[in-house]
Each structure stands twice: as structure tokens, then as C-alpha cells.
Amino acid sequence: MNIKQAKTELKNTIRAYLSTDEQGLPRIDFVKQRPVLLMGPPGIGKTAVMEQLAAECDLALVSYTITHHTRQSAVGLPMIVQRKFGGVEYSATEYTMSEIIGSVYQAMERTGKKQGILFLDEINCVSETLAPTMLQFLQCKTFGTHTLPQGWIIVAAGNPPEYNKSVRELDVVTLDRVKRIDVREDLGVWKEYASRRGIYGAILAYLDSKPQNFYQMESTPGGKEFVTPRGWEDLSQLLYSYDALGLTAEQPTVEQYLQHPAVAKDFAAFLALWQRYNRDVDLAAILQGKVEEPTIRRCAAAGFDEKLALVGLLGDRLTQCFAQCYRLDQTADRLFALLKPFKELVFLPKNNPMEQFSALLSAQQEKAETMLTQSVDKVEKQIQALLVQQLEADREALLSLPEPSPESVFATVKQGFEELVNRRKDAVQQTSDQLDFAFDFLEAAFGRGQELVWFVTQLAGGYYSSWFLAQFGCVRFDQYNESLLFEKRRNQLLDQVNQLQQSQ
């Protein structure tokens, strides 16, 4: 299955393992809760999924790469103690707390969460001396004499032998005690993730035209040549930083992340084209409806890759606008959800209205700071930061009140909310206008050609664009999308007819 399906399966497993019956007892006994074993190629998001699941299920997370451990760090260090056996005193060996189990207890103290996920990566690459200990842990959930706390779920990950020379094949005894999930790479699923994460536009546009280069793993006389989703995502972060610093990423830089010379060379060429069009074409003018005729003629005469880069650039600019609308919309919704309980507290006679606002602001500031230290989605952090920013602006307005009363304090905070709603409204209108201007340009330059198909497909598949179109609509997108769906269905029917004719 792909990583999205694996995530759903893991979430269902977590729910099943942590569920209790009417008496509060686990529906599945702790010892019968099989560790989950994720097996799949490197770099497809197994570790990232663990972070997402922990955040979504409100669980603590402890991650270990098991190849970094010895038997001593897993089981604990030996120490001599005095014990009596049959009335005779002997020196006996006991063990200090396992480093791994100790980290679990530390995570419980740090987060205040009694339930969590213990993630052990590269489980099938353990050393020979540690292998029996790991088997005992998978079977009994103990390292030596130290047991994993109840409420904690073991998830292990490994790579098939063709990807790692250090792999030790797991025997049937071990495999019969785990819940195995085989995971494979999937570009479509990754693009859903990439769209929300804001992966660099050139990468998404390139993979639209060269999907076969999304994941590569080849053995050559010089060693492994590979490209992984992790490589694309990390390269995306670098490209954003380079843009901010005015630097240019050329082929040698790309090869540091895409360790497959042919793919790195091909993408570097496309990236150079992307950056040239970003410099030479006034995208802001296009999205303001002020494009000049020479620009239209130049774009109409461009080559295939140049047109692909141009459409990708337009989509990327619009995606930034869609994402900003999404952030403002979510911020307004969350602030509205805070206003009702805040109003009730402010108008209680015993409460000081300014103290109630200070408590509200402090709670949201603390939440924002906590999110910075956790594996929380970047967009969620941005939304929380916008919420705090709005409340801090409200605080400045409240400080100017001569005599704060419950009525004036709530009215001031409500006014701040209304200003935020107006900002959202303005952003939505501006983005809708820009989307229409983009359609104007594409129609003028390319008519109803394949470029419009690329653009509409990009809008339909993007996370923020899909959200925007579902919430606020766009008549021209609906027209083109309906036409594309009709054409797609027509082609499918023609293919079925041809297959029937060939079979007769």
C-alpha cells in the first residue's frame, strides 16, 4: 500500500489498541498488541508519518534509530548487587534502566501524556549481539527486566534487502509476532502531501512532466544512484532559502540532494528555465490583468518546457494567494470559537475584564510557543501565529481605553475580529480576480490548448486551490473542469469500445 493508506491503517491500529470496554479494560490485551512493522524503500515518509500520527492522535512520540544502539544501551548496564538465595547471600547481576525505556518515561513526564508511540527505525539492521534482545522486546515488550509502559504502541520500520546491505532477514518467529505493512512510493499521494507542505513549485511542475523521476534506485559500478521523496522535500527547503538569499542552485547543488546524475542534470536544466521565466516574465502584471501583447506573443511561441514552467509559475503564485486565504479563514474561525466563552467570562461580575483578556492572550501565546517545539504542521504554526498577532493588536487597542469595562473590552476584541474578517474578504476577492486574470492570459496566449489543461489540472489537484474553489468557486474553472471531465469520460468509453471490437 502507499504511505497514505499505511497512515490510515496505523491510525486504525492505534484506535483499536487504545480502546477500552465498558469496564475500562483494553479490548486487546497489552501483550497481544502486536508491534507494527513498516517495510518499504528509504525516503518515502515512514518517519514523517509517525510524527503526523502522534500529533493527530495526541500521543507522545519517542523515536530511535536502532542501529545506533548496542545491547548495553538497550538493556542497561550491569551492576553487582547482593541477593539471598536459599538463605545464602550471593553477588548477583542486575541492570540499570534501559536507555530506550527511560526515554519513554522521560517523554511521559515532559509531555504529560501517558500514551504514546515508540518508533524504532532500521529494525532489521540491528547488530548480531542486539538481535536476540530485539526479538525479546517484540515478543514481550521488555528490554531485560524493564517493561514498556501500558498505553504505548511499538512501531518499527525497515528497508528491504535490496536497499540496504546491512539488512538481516527477519525470521518467521519474529514476523509471526508483528503486524506487517509493506509500503511503496506513490507520486499522487506525495503530491497531496507536497501541496499542503508548500513544496517548491518548480519541483511539482517538473514531476508533472517527468513522473518517472520521482523515485529512482539503481545499482551501478560506482554504487547506488537514487532519488527519493525525502530528497525532493529537502531540496525544496534549500531552494526557498536560496531564493531569499538571492543565490542560484545549479547542477552540483542539485546533485547533493538528487543523487542520480541523470535526474539531477535534467531537473537542474528545468530549474534554470523556471528561474529565467520568473525573472523575465512579469507575473504580477499577468495576475493584475496588465499583460502586454509582446509578452503574450513570446509565451505563445515558447517551447514545451518553457510553457510548462510558465504555467507552473502562474499556479505557484496563485497557490501562495490561496494559502494566505486559507490561513486567514482558519484564523478567523478559531478566533470566533474563542469569543463566545470569552464573552461569558468577561461579563461575570466577579471577573476583571482586562485580566480575562490577558489570560486568553497568554494561553494562546503559550500554545504557539509549544507548537514551535513540536512536530506540528507548519501551516498550523502559521495560523496560531496569526491568531496571536491579532490578539496582541487587540491588547494595544485595549490599553488605550480610559476605563475598561466588560462592554468596552468585548467590543474592542469583537472589532478586531471584524477587521480580521474584512481582511479575509479582501484577500478572497483579490485572489478571485487574479485567478480570472490568469485564465484571461492563458486563453490569449494558448487558446484552449494543452496549457489550459495543465493549469486546470494543477488547480484541481492542489490542496489550497481545491479548498478555495470549493469555498468560493470560480465559474471559468468549473467550465473548463467540466469540459475536461467530459472529454476524459468520452475517451474512456472510446477505449472500451475499441477493446470490445478487438476482442470480437
From TrEMBL:
SUPFAM superfamilies: P-loop containing nucleoside triphosphate hydrolases. One of its GO terms (molecular function) is ATP hydrolysis activity. It comes from the Bacteria. Residues 32-185 form the AAA+ ATPase domain. PANTHER family: MAGNESIUM-CHELATASE SUBUNIT CHLD, MOXR FAMILY PROTEIN. This is AAA family ATPase. It comes from Candidatus Egerieicola pullicola.
